[in-house]
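Table S2 (continued). Query chain:
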Amino acid sequence: MFVQLLTATGVLAVLTVVPGPDMAVVTKRAIASGWRDGLRTVGGITAGLLTWGSLTVVGLAAVLAASATAYTLVKLAGAVYLGFLGVQALRQSRRGRSTAPEASSPVPSGNPWRTGLVSNIFNPKIAVFYTGLLPTLAPSGLTPHLGMTVLVLVHAALTLVWLGSYVLVLAKARAFFEKPGVRRAMDRITGVVLIGFGIKVATSQP
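Corresponding output:
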């Protein structure tokens, strides 16, 4: 069982570090508002994973993964939200053009924890991932519910550590990112990336 759990943790670790919408949202918030808001965003994302995990354990996420209508509604809501965040970043980059060199870009509005939570909750790929992959990784020595619960907690912990560390690395280089030219470039890049992920989510299939 220990070997199975170790193997599952390795697979989850690889999937966790692959860049996705969560990392783009965290990047935008951490650079614009600082490491505290960045960590709060990570906390919201982790809460979203635990929510999906809870739904998976009780079987509700399987219903979403199996229902084309429900999947479409959730993915479109998620795509719109990611698109909104992307447009917001692009607007901030345009407003930053007329500011003095020492001025900072506007701080994103909204609660960072809620931003992370909503961006994760409206990602239906998490439901498909949890209901499709996690059962195949669950250690055979545990009951199905317990095995799934353990893997959800492992994935949430890996996400918290990985994105939290990423935020702290960004904080170390914040002086560089706060330069007006760099800030505008990062706003544009993250805006385009978020819109791109929104389109990807909107066109994805279960």
